[in-house]
Specification:
Largest sheet: 3 strands, antiparallel
Strand order of the largest sheet: 3-4-7
Number of strands: 11
Strand content: 5-15%
Low-confidence stretches: 1-6
Subunit structure: Monomer.
Cofactor: Zn(2+)
Structural class: mainly alpha
GO molecular function: ligase activity
Helix content: 40-55%
Keywords: Aminoacyl-tRNA synthetase, ATP-binding, Cytoplasm, Ligase, Metal-binding, Nucleotide-binding, Protein biosynthesis, Zinc
Number of helices: 20
Distance between the termini: 76 Å
InterPro entries: aa-tRNA-synth_I_cd-bd, aa-tRNA-synth_I_codon-bd_sub2, aa-tRNA-synth_I_CS, aa_tRNA-synth_I_cd-bd_sf, Glu-tRNA-ligase_bac/mito, Glu-tRNA-synth_I_codon-bd_sub1, Glu/Gln-tRNA-synth, Glu/Gln-tRNA-synth_Ib_cat-dom
Length: about 500
């Protein structure tokens, strides 16, 4: 087994020669598994000063839309996972859309056939099924049995005369395929478990096991970091890389592989794109920070240190070592993901935190997309009140909405009213309004006046004294610190809301 503790990750390569790729399909939304794969490739490339290639697997043209391409590019840019070559970035080894590379694949297949590295297979599906069932019954391997591998010319012609349309299969080697996985160590696949596989369908459509290795070879990819689910296809692809090298396609170098562990969801099942919490869009809408989400996803199989969970992307790039990725499946924990995101929110400078809240407040109609100077002043002043209390940016709507909603639109949450604005609440609100009528409108003066009137004057406990005032001011039972909130809201609005609440209590 290769010693994975040394410099074998690069072999004879210079660090700057590292080239990895992220090949999403524009037929659906990016999932957390996709993003983690992109992140590890990005961190690997940045760690060594190499290149990240974005290559789009769009050969399924019936399902592709212009919006799906744009979504992929915008999503990666939102995450900060910039690519060095690919769509919109350019590069000398394109095109980077597989749909624009069909002539390349056809030419490679022609060369493979001419060199005897591949062959036409005329077996019908019914014949394949029959032979596979017979093999299973006999307790033998049920993969393709090589029936068409070395057919005599007259039999081939007979199939052609019948009008059969052949697939193209790769001629697999008859020796074990052994490779050193950068995550899992040495892996061996025996030839009896590796039948000749299909490269091109009978309709001429090139398949994934053909196009990805061809693209890797021609784009000079040095390392392939991808999900564990693709491990079983690796020996077949290695065989194709070797065949491509023999016919002069690409650099002649077989990439190094590293297969990343599964991301598991509820019930210890592999997280599916249909599961809640698996899609990127959900995290964008909930107001996760890209750096917070990426930090958590990095922890699904890798860590920067045993006693440290929170780090920046720059720190990850500096420390990233693919050999330290754990091969065991990683469980996605939504609560920890939120906690990591919250930690990154605390790390933001206050001005930046305010700026990042604006799109959510604007989306709720509480602020214009370009707030006024007065609105910005209130928002920036509110940051110290909420930055330590929020886990996601979307919480700014409920947390700070009361500061920006106009009087005509302000409402009190019915549940809060039912639980708090009862009993002596009207008395509390009336006394509060009178106590505040003439005080200087500062946090300190507001607090002193309310404590004197409600706690000392009425003999109430703080919860019973300030609960009705909080609901009156914010419309909710939970809000930023009350006295600071009232100072930001202003005297006129505060007194108006106390009166409004008193009439409804």
């Amino acid at each position: 087994m290769t010693d994975r503790s040394g410099s074998d990750v690069l072999g004879e390569l210079e660090p700057s020669q590292v080239r990895v790729r992220f090949p999403p399909s524009p037929t659906g939304l990016l999932t957390v598994g996709n993003i983690r794969s992109a992140l590890f490739n990005w961190a690997f490339a940045r760690h060594y000063g190499g290149k990240l290639v974005l290559r789009i697997e769009d050969t399924d043209t019936a399902r592709n839309t212009e919006e799906s391409y744009r979504y992929t590019y915008d999503a990666l840019r939102w995450l900060g996972l910039n690519w060095d070559e690919g769509p919109e970035a350019g590069g000398e080894l394109g095109p980077y859309l597989q749909s624009e590379r069909m002539d390349i694949y056809a030419d490679v297949v022609t060369k493979l056939l001419a060199a005897g590295k591949a062959y036409h297979c005329y077996c019908s599906q019914e014949e394949l099924d029959q032979r596979r069932e017979a093999a299973r019954t006999a307790g033998q391997h049920s993969g393709y049995d090589g029936h068409c591998r070395d057919l005599p010319p007259e039999q081939l012609q007979a199939y052609v005369d019948e009008g059969r349309r052949p697939v193209v299969r790769l001629r697999m080697p008859d020796h074990p395929i052994v490779f050193d996985d950068l995550v899992r160590g040495e892996i061996t696949f025996l030839p009896e478990n590796l039948g000749d596989y299909v490269l091109v369908r009978a309709n001429g459509y090139p398949l994934y096991p053909l196009v990805n290795p061809v693209d890797d070879a021609l784009m000079e990819i040095t390392h392939v970091l991808r999900g564990e689910d693709l491990l079983s296809s690796t020996p077949r692809q290695i065989a194709l890389y070797e065949a491509l090298a023999e016919i002069g396609v690409g650099s002649g170098r077989t990439p190094r592989f590293g297969h990343l562990p599964f991301v598991m969801g509820e019930g210890n099942k592999r997280l599916s794109k249909r599961d809640k919490g698996s899609g990127l869009t959900e995290y964008v809408e909930r107001g996760f920070l890209p750096e917070g989400l990426l930090n958590y996803l990095a922890l699904l199989g890798w860590s920067i240190a045993e006693d440290r969970d929170v780090f920046t992307m720059a720190e990850m790039v500096e420390a990233f070592d693919i050999r330290k990725v754990n091969s065991n499946s990683a469980r996605f924990d939504p609560k920890k993901c939120e906690a990591i995101n919250a930690a990154h929110m605390r790390m933001l400078p206050r001005d930046e935190f305010a700026e990042r809240m604006i799109p959510f407040l604007a989306g709720a109609g509480l602020l214009p997309e370009q707030p006024t100077e007065a609105q910005l002043a209130v928002l920036h002043a509110a940051v110290p009140l909420v930055q330590e209390r929020m886990n996601m940016l979307s919480e700014s709507v409920d947390m700070l909405g009361f500061l920006f909603v106009d009087d005509a639109s302000f409402t009190i949450d019915p549940d809060a009213a039912a639980k708090v604005l009862t009993g002596d609440a009207s008395t509390v609100l009336d006394v509060s309004a009178k106590a505040l009528a003439d005080v200087e409108w500062t946090t300190e003066a507001i607090e002193a006046a309310l404590r004197a009137a409600l706690i000392e004057g009425l003999g109430l406990k703080p919860k019973n004294a300030f609960g009705p005032v909080r609901v009156a001011i914010s419309g909710r039972r939970i809000s930023p610190p009350l006295f600071e909130s009232m100072e930001l809201l202003g005297r006129e609005k505060s007194l108006h809301r106390l009166e409004l609440a008193r009439r409804t209590s």
